[in-house]
Structure formats: structure tokens, C-alpha cells
Amino acid sequence: MATCLKRLRRFASIGRKGQEYSTTCDEPPKLQKSGKTVNLFTAINQALRIALETDPRAYVFGEDVSFGGVFRCTTGLVEQFGRNRVFNTPLCEQGIVGFGIGLAAMGNRAIAEIQFADYIYPAFDQLVNEAAKFRYRSGNQFNCGGLTIRSPYGAVGHGGHYHSQSPEAFFCHVPGLKVVIPRSPNQAKGLLLASIRDPNPVIFFEPKWLYRLAVEEVPEHDYMLPLSQAEVICHGNDITLVGWGAQLSIMEQACIDAEKDGISCELIDLKTLIPWDKETVEASVRKTGRLLVSHEAPVTGGFGAEISASIAERCFLRLEAPVARVCGLDTPFPLVFEPFFMPTKNKILDAIKATVNY
User: Fold this and answer.
1) Do 327 and 305 form a contact (C-beta atoms < 8 A)?
2) Residue 44 pLDDT > 50, yes or no?
3) What is the pLDDT of residues 174-199, one digit of tens each?
4) CATH architecture of 2-10+229-356
5) Do 81 and 65 touch, CB atoms closer than 8 A?
6) Residue of 63, 93, 216, 231 marked active site
7) According to CATH, where is 3.40.50.970 located in the chain?
8) Per the residue annotation, which of 163, 259, 266, 295 is the catalytic one?
9) Which of these CATH numbers, 3.30.2310.20, 3.40.50.970, 3.40.50.150, 3.10.20.340, describes 33-219?
10) Is 20 an annotated catalytic residue?
11) 173 is catalytic
């Protein structure tokens, strides 16, 4: 854990209540090349620009993307690549994804934006019954593997019912789709480029809370990070913590406070939820004997349940305590009561102590 605390100075960002916090990432050597300090939405913009530059078959489309989109992730792309490759669509999520499936089926790279993850549900049938099954229903004669669906997801501090949801678990249930969620700018750039170039349809959820708040040095060159490969951010011996997206920064703060009480935490960023890296999590739990999973989505049916069940099956005789889950509540996402809904640092810290002292 001491090694982790030293690395927690790699880049600074702003926490949910405005306080500064530090986060970390152990990158492969290639990511150590010099770059510029940018925020997450700029890193996404860089990835999209590289995708369009390196592949003439790549297209970016969605509601309002031609002027940069609500979060400015597509700023400047239409001026550089023209309206034939970067263009607005009607306000119809089913149509956006359906068009993307057709475009990808013809051998193109279709990069579709759903403006908020909360509004991805009208496209649910297209994603679940068409995109996920296209390869299987044709016996691999056809596929829409060039399809990437980008969408901002999760809490933002004032989004309420319709702009704060975390729907990742719905899509993790569907064979044929990949689900990817980055925690930081350089992770976002590398994982998005890998998703765009992956031969399978990918849903790429971007933590909207971090668009402007997460800042770090991001290489300007073209690079990809492997999908379905979790990362051990902090090494520890007493308990394993697993999370993804914006929740990682909250979990890191809890790890730091737990260290003050003599608890050594091992923190893992899953990054890809489906297919997820069971082996890395299992190896960690076999060492620590304890597991805590945290995510913003409601606890019932959340992806933390799948992780808990899988690890219980694989590591039952090594577990020293029940698997803990610190998640959102089983209610619609609130507005003024968001602080009660969210899995906060103190909630995670209490669960860490309870699990270690079980």
C-alpha cells in the first residue's frame, strides 16, 4: 500500500465535493512518452480525431455532434473531416444505433454517440437483438463488429432522474456486446481507440463527472490499451476492492484513509466489464481473503452481483468474510438526495473496516 500511496501523486483532479484528490494509473512503458496535460473530454476528442485520421471508413454521428456535442467531445471534428463523416442525426436513439449497425455491417467503423446513457433505452432492441446477435445469426458470414456506441453515464451532481443513471449491467447480460468504462483521460483515449478497432460491437460509457474534472498527462500519439484486462492500481494484503469509472477515485480516497488505520487495500480497476478479467480479481482475493465491490448503479442486479457470485464460486475456501457491496440505492436516482444515494468514501471505508474485522 505504501507503494500505492507514492503513486497517488501521478495526477490531480477534483473530487465530488470540490476537494482535491489524487489518483493513479500504472501505464505500460509506451504511455510514458511526453504528452500534454488534458481533461477527459479532450482525451476522448483526441481519440476520435485519430480514429478518423487513420481510417477513412470511420464515421462519427449522433445528436448535435457536429457542433461538438453537449460535453464538447466532438469539437472541431466536422471542420477537419467534413459533414459526410461527422454529422448530426435525428433525435431517435433507435435510429442512431440501427443506422450504425447497417454502416458497420458494410465494413465501416461506425462511432455513434448517445447523448446521455439514460436515453439509450429506446435503442435497447437494436443493441440486444440486432448488434449483439448479428454475427451469430449469420453463422459469421456477416457482422457489425465495427460498431462503437459512446455515451456519457453516471452521476454529475445535479442530473436527477434522467441524467445520472448507470445502465451498464443491462448490457453485461447480453452475449455479443463488450462494455468498457474508463477511469481517467489516458485510459479513456487508449480504451476508446481499442474499442473502435475491436472486431466486436462495444458500448463505451464515459463518466460524465470526470469530463472536465479528471486531468492528467495524455500522450498525443496513437495508442491502444487492451480490453478485458483489469489493472491493479494499489497493491495490498488485507482486502481487495474492485470498481470502474468515476468510482475509482472515491475508492482510492477510502484506501488512503484505511491505510491510516493500518488496513492494506488492493484496488483493481476492472475497465472492461464484459468480458471481465476474472483471473486478476481471483488472484487478488486468494491473497487478501476479502472482497469489496463498489459502483454507482443500484445494488440489486448491478454488475457487482456478478463479480460477487463468480468470486464466491472460485474463492469460497479462501474468503475470510462475506463479499461486500457498496453501491447506489434501489430507488430512482434522486436530485437533492443524491449524497444519500451515492456510494461515498465514508460508506466504502465503513465497509472496509467491517469486512476486515468480520
Assistant:
1) no
2) yes
3) 999 999 999 999 999 999 999 999 99
4) 3-Layer(aba) Sandwich (3.40)
5) no
6) 93
7) 33-219
8) 163
9) 3.40.50.970
10) no
11) no
